[in-house]
Amino acid sequence: MATALNTQFGINGQLKFREDAPVKGTPPDTRPVGGLGAASGLIVAEINNALGSASVCLQGAHLMSWQPKSQPVPVVWLSRDTQPAVGKSIRGGAPVCWPWFGAHATESSFSGHGYARTVPWQVIESGTEPNGATRLTLRLVESDKTRAQWPHDCNVDLTVIVGETLRMELTTENTGSTDFVIGEALHTYFQIGDIGAVRVTGLEGCDYWDKVGGSSLRTQDGAISFSGETDRVYINSAAECVIHDDKLKRRIHIAKSGSFSTVVWTPWVEKANKMGDMGQPDGWREMVCVESANAIENVVKIAAGTRHTLIVEYRAESA
């Protein structure tokens, strides 16, 4: 699989595909085929150009890492305890939440945040941008299992452009004859020095649903800082956000379009310990999620024959 991908889509010196080691404890004859290695583990695209580096797992179109060459520390966080496996989500990176965000509205047995992050995607295009950045486009692979959860005709593509900045474009095209509604998010985990020494600006005065201890509607007063578990869905805002990191002495800019919700999340110690894959004992202190989304009031209706694109661009600079 990796060899064929390198032949068709590889870019000499910039983009190559590799097959991860076999998933521990998984018999070879039970590993699925598709966008994954048939007899080994998962297929990962490795990007490394003069501007930056990144890795993308074909399962879930899951960006796992990104580091511009100007930064001594990665900008996107990946848990040191994550164990990528067939059909399982990866802890960290930028999971694709689609076609719903959070729990499914009616089916409790369906995966939270949708199925897109745990199923195969296929490579449909790659190339080099005029500025030297590397472009990779993946498309969600439909199956009987996905159609049972989402019986709508559509194409779902994720384009990742890796350079000094990281641009991600999630496009849903309604190829059917009836309208449908989606919820979505790029659930990005950012590498920080310490959760107690960061603040997030750009959402001052915005309303948000506070998911900790029940769901209540509140209004943000000033910058967001962290002293405990935080799980908030900010609504009706397309504003750019900035993560101010005093320990790493840098700012991470998050600019978006086609997104009117922003989710801010940190599990804190008790929930992180229960999750078990956050990089024990204190990996959770080195990450914060600022997610570009369309959720709750901001879910998106996509008319038949039209498309919707959520775009986000990340940029890091020294403070």
How is this structure best described in words?
- The protein has 319 residues and is mostly beta strands.
- It has a single domain, classed as Beta-galactosidase, Chain A, domain 5 (Distorted Sandwich).
- Helices cover 7% and strands 41% of the residues.
- It has three helices and 23 strands.
- The strands form four sheets. It has a nine-stranded antiparallel sheet with strand order 6-7-8-9-23-19-18-13-16, with no helix packed on it.
- The longest helix has 8 residues.
- About 6% of the residues have low confidence.
Describe the secondary-structure layout:
Blueprint: H1 2-9, E1 15-19, E2 43-48, E3 52-57, E4 62-68, E5 96-97, E6 121-128, E7 134-140, H2 144-149, E8 154-162, E9 166-174, E10 180-182, E11 184-186, E12 189-191, E13 198-201, E14 207-210, E15 216-219, E16 224-225, E17 230-235, E18 241-245, E19 250-257, E20 261-266, H3 268-275, E21 287-294, E22 300-302, E23 307-318
Antiparallel strand pairs: 1-2, 2-3, 3-4, 5-11, 6-7, 7-8, 8-9, 9-23, 10-22, 11-21, 12-21, 13-16, 13-18, 14-15, 14-17, 17-20, 18-19, 19-23, 20-21
